[in-house]
Amino acid sequence: MNHIFIKKGHDIRIAGIPSKDVLSIPGSDSVAISPKTFRGVKPKRMVSEGDRVQIGSPLFFDKTKPEVKWASPANGTVQTIQFGARHVIEKIEIKIEGNDSISGQSFTFDQLASSDRPTILNRILEANLFPLIRQRPFNKVANPKDSPRDIFISAVNTAPLSVDLRTVIESEKEAFQAGIIALSKLTDGRVFVTSRNVIELQNAEVQTISGPHPAGNVGIQIHHSKPIKPHDIIWTVDAQHVITLGKLFLTGSYQPNVIVSVGGSGATNPQTVFAKVGANIGSLITNQDMDEPARLVSGDILTGHTVEKDNFLGFYDSSVSIILDSVDRPFMGMLALGSNESKYSLTNSFLTFGEKLFNFNTAQNGELRAMVPINAWEKVLPMDVYPNALYRAILAQDIEEMEQLGMWECDDEDFALCTFACPSKIDVGAVIRQGLNLLEVEG
């Protein structure tokens, strides 16, 4: 069994770590999906305001891949369809009214094991759940017409305040195994499952990993297992979505449930809860005292996006981060004497002891300035990539040099810690995404 040992990286010691016990909370009155958040997708709606939908009903499809549709995560009435510039669909909101769902063919484990690729693929497309599968490079919704070299699944979360996937998988082991078997039919290669501990699975190559964040990022796991070469196509599936696919095959219907962590320095009651895909953010923080100014983030603090209480959980997100938004600027700034009570440093510039958790806030602690090449990015990036040189190649739009420096393997989420560690306050992840977009168009 392969073991990956990650030396570089960093686990941010932020206060408000959610408990591992999964709690039930009052459900959301409505759910929503935001088509604009899917990279490279040109959405065309299949519903109008006032239409009745069931769980699993198609809401919209991708004009570039008409067979790829998005399933409704709720039964009820289409309450709002919000449009943005050029009439692009920004949000489809559904008012929940009951639990009726569309049912289709179910499979036993023996039937799954004997099924071929067209049977499995058609069932996923028929259930409108193919968007659960993404591809590398570019980290976008996969194309069902492609045949991936391999499929990778990360069974470990190392991002700050994230869900404990080991607990989730152990509680849904049968569905997870069914999902693995189904996915194994979609590739002529292998299904890699990477975990902290050994998991007994059929139809998968299980490997273990140790080390700090971003060890849980699937891109890092691919890099250390079987790197992407130019024009390779890899499919990736989130561990909770593997469970969703497994339940589809075992029960015949879409079960739009997700386990969500709610925590952070601004969380008064850090917890892990049951929720629906696309749940209202307000319903997820109902047990939190929001008297203090705080920023809400759908996703983890490194890669998520800012939301308001009346917004909705992102399609691929399984955490809500609450970060204090009150900024107290200390006298003399970085020249002030440090202590283990309030200062946090990746470079040990301040004196800290043990594994103390810190009440991070939204302060940037500086402004954008010229690049300082002191290996701050290299220390937290566990890839055989020169981030400084790659950054410069992207700014110069030098496609050939970008490819030579490993652009095909990169994704912005894998460089999020570089942004956190950057003394120049450069959004390294955003520049990597800029390079990926350029490579996709010109490469």
Description:
This protein has 443 residues and is α/β, with parallel strands linked by helices. The protein has 3 domains: 1-27 and 100-326, no CATH class; 28-96, RNA polymerase II/Efflux pump adaptor protein, barrel-sandwich hybrid domain (OB fold (Dihydrolipoamide Acetyltransferase, E2P), Beta Barrel); 378-442, no CATH class. It has 11 helices and 20 strands. It has helices at residues 109-114, 117-126, 165-171, 173-184, 218-225, 239-251, 281-284, 387-395, 399-404, 416-421, 428-442, and strands at residues 3-5, 22-23, 30-33, 43-45, 52-53, 58-62, 65-71, 76-83, 89-96, 133-136, 140-141, 150-154, 191-195, 205-210, 234-237, 257-263, 271-276, 294-298, 305-307, 319-324. The strands form 4 sheets. The protein has a 7-stranded mixed β-sheet, with helices on both faces. β16 (257-263) and β17 form a beta hairpin. α4 crosses α6 (239-251) and α8 (387-395) crosses α11 (428-442). The longest helix is centred in the C-terminal third of the chain and has 15 residues, at 428-442. The radius of gyration is 22 Å and the shape is globular. The two termini are 36 Å apart. The model has no long low-confidence stretch (mean pLDDT 93).
Write the topology of this structure:
Blueprint (H helix, E strand, L loop, with lengths): L2 E3 L16 E2 L6 E4 L9 E3 L6 E2 L4 E5 L2 E7 L4 E8 L5 E8 L12 H6 L2 H10 L6 E4 L3 E2 L8 E5 L10 H7 L1 H12 L6 E5 L9 E6 L7 H8 L8 E4 L1 H13 L5 E7 L7 E6 L4 H4 L9 E5 L6 E3 L11 E6 L62 H9 L3 H6 L11 H6 L6 H15 L1
Parallel strand pairs: 1-14, 2-17, 12-13, 12-15, 13-14, 16-20
Antiparallel strand pairs: 3-9, 4-6, 5-8, 6-7, 8-9, 10-11, 10-15, 16-17, 18-19, 18-20
Helix pairs in contact: 4-6, 8-11
